Amino acid sequence: MIRKRFMQLFSLLLLMWCFSVSAQEKQTFNSFQEAMAGLRPLGGNSGPSNVNWINDGQAYSFTETGENGAQIIKSFNPKTQEEKLIFSTEGLKVPETEDAFQYVSFQWSDDSKYLLFQTNFRPVWRRSGISDYYYYSIEDKTLDLVAKDAQTAELSPNGKKVGYERGGNLFVFDLANKQETQLTDDAEDGFYNGRFGWAYEEEFGLAQAWEWSHDSEYIAFWQSDEREVPIFQMTDYQGTHKEWVELPYPQVGDTNPTVKIGVINISKQSKEWMQVPLEEGYIPRIYWTAEKEKLAVMHLNRAQTHMKLFMADVTTGNANMILEEKSDAWIDVFDFFAGIMHYAFFPKDAKEFFWISDKDGYAHLYRYSYEGKLQNQVTTGNWEVVFVHAVDSKKKKIYYSSTEDSPLERQLYVVNFNGRGKKKITEMEGRHNIDMAPEATYFIDRYSNINTPTKIELKEASGKTVKMLEENKEVGEALKNVAFVMPELSSFENGEGDKIDFSIYKPVGFDASQKYPMVVDVYGGPGAQSVYNQWSVSAWHQYLLHNGYVVIQVNNRGGGAYGREFEKVVYKNLGHAEAQDFADAVNFMVNQGYVDANKVAIRGHSYGGYMSSFSILNHPDVFKVALVGAPVTDWRLYDSIYAERYMGLEEDNEDGYINSSPTTYAKNLTGHMFIAHSTMDENVHVQNTFQLVKGLIDNGKDHDLKIFPPGAHGVAYNYPSYLLLMNNYINYLDKYLK
Q1: Which of 133, 314, 303 is nearest to 221 (CA)?
Q2: Count of C-beta atoms within a 10 Å radius of residue 69
């Protein structure tokens, strides 16, 4: 027995020695800059870029860069496997100049014969900017300027006109006679036709505030009035006399932008206003329907707990409410984190629509008639529909991604309109990112899991593989040269009895008998999700792992994919449940025996900055260090649309606002807090940080503050400033946790 144990021990030591030698032969990172450079090969290739489905879903276009830097557009036909060159900037000049032609983005005409190029982009906010637009004929190879200094532009569905917004007014350009027609003429500062201000664009996710009708005869648009919205000012303090940037920014309780929906008859140049009462609320979405001259208009009350859907006659403006939904928490109309712009779907060839709602406890699809009558619930179960990729009205099928296999995964399914015949299409466990033709002919599947680098396949709608587009075999080769740490997926039960999924990254050369410092890397905002079963390459994480830290990420309460109760428990009480889950995760890890309870940090940015500051102040016995980037420190300082969505109206929840503010708990700081913010952050204003700092000073609490005068919400504004910020974080951790 002793001999057997000795041999087992000897074998174990030999195995550990071999692993140690192997690990020593692999690259480790001594600086964050080394980690960024060394990990680039592990990200792999992402397959075809800028995919657009064309020719009624029978082909797709994609972009490449030529050897001399030329921008190239090609097409691929899945049936024939034929690849064609569509367009190249090689030798192409901007019309009437000697300047090389370059574009930022492009869009196809519905008949796939023309391209509209966006050029000379000058950013305004997160999604918007001012550009020049050029029209290109694929057959004639002609390039013509159609709109200069426009904020948005779009080809009409019939390809005969280009609509655009410039200076707060709407225009159309007739491509046949090359004439511009102005459709509105009443814009002024803070008063726009076809353009959103900062708050609507940021919090409802759309940059273009107008839509062509399916028949190209009408344009429906938002008219936005921000003239009574309080003005926010910011400066980077450069020059002798600083320059102020001003924008209307409504904080909690402030006067909001007012909007109304107009519809312009292009041929008559007449306008009708849709009779949908705003009543201090919002109009976050409009949809052209399959019924000619009918526009669906969605309304939310200011608290975003009551949705009304109106069907409007664009010739008279008369609007009838056909559907309403009430909730004891907020109602979502899109998903920022998943890139899902719509939860309502109006097929242009079927007089019915679909709506994603969590009213049965999980986000599911519901099917309605144009009269608002529920025809059937399409999906059901203790899982969520997270993305609708295509609605095939001819075959009466819907293709969607869901969490049915696991909240950590995304798999593609198809189901009949009536809810029958559900079938899973994707196979490999993990996260599948689907890019499907609107006609539901083919799709590109980018998929991975924690142990499998991303693969990209072109498939038929049935799931049959047409072509492997990218296997990323080079990643496997690169892994042989780098001491790369893959996460472990785990879970624990929090103090409320909820199952909490999280990921664990153990340091290079991990020894379970040792005690390690740990960093909890968080975001934590409503609807967000940090942990997936997917391939992930993070220079920040890998550098920490190469330098003796454990790192964890947590799918905390308030996050998406786990059902209504799990997500909306944070309503009117942000911060508390999330911080408790982070603290419980730390305690779970400490109990594993290899994490030093006295050396735990939490780091986050934006909502994550809010959570890192809130957590160290509410759980000072758990967190010894907080790295706080661009934090909200009082929701009354943030924009009204976001803050009131999750915290309710201030008059209904004053105590909740106070109790959800990190500044309220400034007296509790016993550890070390490092805060970074930019004075040019138009999203989370630096006022938040200064109020937290004052709260800390008022209570005699020391802290560390780094102000970046330039830089927007990301704080860093170029490569050197990014390196500086990350090295500040690293040095702070090393100083107080090692």
Answers
A1: 314
A2: 10
Cα separation, 149 vs 126, in Å, equals 18
| CB distance 125 to 204 below 8 Å | no
Q: How much is the average pLDDT of 430-441? A: 98
Q: How far is CA 164 from the centre of its chain?
A: 26
Looking at 493-635, list the stretches that DSSP marks H as alpha helix, in order from N- to C-terminal side: 539-546, 564-568, 576-591, 607-618
Q: How does pLDDT run across 23-80, given as a tens digit for each residue?
A: 457 999 999 999 999 999 999 999 999 999 999 999 999 999 998 899 999 999 999 9
CA 247 to CA 234: how far, in whole Å?
Answer: 9
Classify residue 51 by burial, with Cβ atoms within 10 Å: 0-12, 13-18, 19+.
middle
Mean pLDDT across 413-432? 98
> What's the distance, Cα to Cα, between the start and end of the chain in Å?
42
With 0-12 / 13-18 / 19 or more C-beta atoms within 10 angstroms meaning exposed / middle / buried, residue 317 is middle
Query: Distance (Å, rounded) from C-alpha 163 to C-alpha 346?
Result: 22
Query: What confidence category does residue 534 fall into, taking pLDDT thresholds of 50, 70 and 90?
Result: very high
Residue in this structure with the two tokens 């330098």, named with its chain if needed: 547
Let me know the angle formed at the C-alpha of 570 by 566 and 571, rounded to the nearest 5 degrees. Answer: 115
Q: Give the tokens for residue 405.
A: 């296999």
> Per DSSP, what are the bridge partners of residue 286?
297
Output the pTM of the full model. 0.94
| Amino acid in position 278 | L
Please report the pLDDT score of residue 644 as a whole number: 98
Contacts with 535 (C-beta within 8 Å, 6 or more apart), sequence order:
44, 448, 449, 450, 452, 453, 454
Tokens (6 digits) for 540: 């920040």
pLDDT value of residue 6: 35
CB 164 within 8 A of CB 171: yes
